[in-house]
Amino acid sequence: MPAIIEERRSYVAGRWVDGDGSFAVENPADESTVAEIGVTPLAEIERAITEARRSFDEGVWADTPAAERAKILSAFLDHIEASHDTLVATMIAEAGQPVAYAERAQFTSGLALGRATINLYQSMRHEETNPVPIDELVLGRVALSVRRHEPIGVVAAITPYNGAIIMAFQKVIPALMAGNSVILRPSPLTPISSLVFASAAEAAGLPPGVLSVVVEEGAAGAELLTTHPAVDMVSFTGSTAVGKRILAQAAPTVKRVSLELGGKSAQIYLPDAVDRVATGAFMVVATTAGQACVAATRMLVPQDKKAEVLEAVSRAYGSLKVGPPSDPAAMMGPVINDAARARCERYVALAEQHGGKVTTGGGRPAGLERGYYFEPTVLDVPDNTNPAAQEEIFGPVLSVIGYRDLDDAVRIANDSVYGLSGQVYGKDVAAATAVARRLRTGAVNVNTALFSAYAPSGGYKQSGLDRERGPDGIRAFQEVKHIAIGELR
């Protein structure tokens, strides 16, 4: 395995900053220390905010023509691409991710997303006339009514541990392309890989203050970013509980807050698609160990076929190899830490206390004494009120629930405080699509899936606010200004 990223300092307003102490980043696959990384002094996070404010207000980046911003950001992405070996090795070490996930889902997809986002921004109109009726224009002596999309200002981007790089691409590139200044604060559990964005900023020649990357062990810096009056927007991906705290922290300064939060997504199988359940179940836990907010951890199947579904899914999970990234046969790695594993154990116990049954898994795999592993687990739950069907576990635990008819399936799927994603499978595509249209969720995949810079993601209900990716994801980092233009008389 190649060496990991060597840098251990944060990057603030164009210069590298030594840490005020350090903390250990742990490898969840074997509980070893990946590296000691410096803690950004709180005064330096304050300086990152101040310099971001200055760089934006002076227009050093926001007033740069879009074509020039695109050129610099393309060089920025080129630097990240050239860092392939060390970046992938770092992601594997600090997150315990299988090689395929770090390589394809984060590195390759992230770069493609970044380049496509630049192209998407350039294809959009950022100043256009409003469709005001001519009689209103005449009445107001208006020659032109213009809607202008402008950068929002200083953006705090706070990313999670489970997809540190791909989530940073989703926030940093559209925010910068729109002309904002950005402060990236990665999860303390997986901070090292995000330093590649700092070295890319330096290599591409981003003006000082336009992008800073700050690292911390706790949450004091993040709280400063979410409360500081000089920060205009917080873009956060993580748990609903933390998202609620960020909303409260941002409220006194009326910041814009974009949140992609938790989920308890349902995968619904029409009667003609039950033969697809093993593949659908596999997708929940393979590579991510269920640590994905969009993971469809509720499997809804016809009640009269539930027994055969449980047998098929349990057989599939029982054959799935769990192990460290160094094992090429391993298709699922560890969860991120001991607390995450304990959460899996707690919800399995709660499921059983409320009438659920474990049909496979439910504990720690044999032969893996070190590392935070949990078996891929199938739960037979009697109904959707079971705690394992209501709460986001964020681990490799799947609940199988029977439905009477499609109306009942839709009711069960929508019976959740979350609404981030969903899946519907059916050979009758029209029927499956009709079900998808009734789901109260931000995205639904019917027999397939799409991850693209041109297609949005985001949640209904307590799964979040606003959207990432797609035109809506760019607009999230912009303000709308109306300009009415007329002649003096």
From TrEMBL:
<comment type="similarity">
    <text>Belongs to the aldehyde dehydrogenase family.</text>
</comment>
<protein>
    <recommendedName>
        <fullName>aldehyde dehydrogenase (NAD(+))</fullName>
        <ecNumber>1.2.1.3</ecNumber>
    </recommendedName>
</protein>
<feature type="domain" description="Aldehyde dehydrogenase">
    <location>
        <begin position="16"/>
        <end position="483"/>
    </location>
</feature>
<dbReference type="InterPro" id="IPR029510">
    <property type="entry name" value="Ald_DH_CS_GLU"/>
</dbReference>
<dbReference type="Pfam" id="PF00171">
    <property type="entry name" value="Aldedh"/>
</dbReference>
<feature type="active site">
    <location>
        <position position="260"/>
    </location>
</feature>
<dbReference type="InterPro" id="IPR016161">
    <property type="entry name" value="Ald_DH/histidinol_DH"/>
</dbReference>
<dbReference type="InterPro" id="IPR016160">
    <property type="entry name" value="Ald_DH_CS_CYS"/>
</dbReference>
<dbReference type="InterPro" id="IPR016162">
    <property type="entry name" value="Ald_DH_N"/>
</dbReference>
<keyword id="KW-0560">Oxidoreductase</keyword>
<dbReference type="InterPro" id="IPR016163">
    <property type="entry name" value="Ald_DH_C"/>
</dbReference>
<dbReference type="GO" id="GO:0004029">
    <property type="term" value="F:aldehyde dehydrogenase (NAD+) activity"/>
</dbReference>
<dbReference type="InterPro" id="IPR015590">
    <property type="entry name" value="Aldehyde_DH_dom"/>
</dbReference>
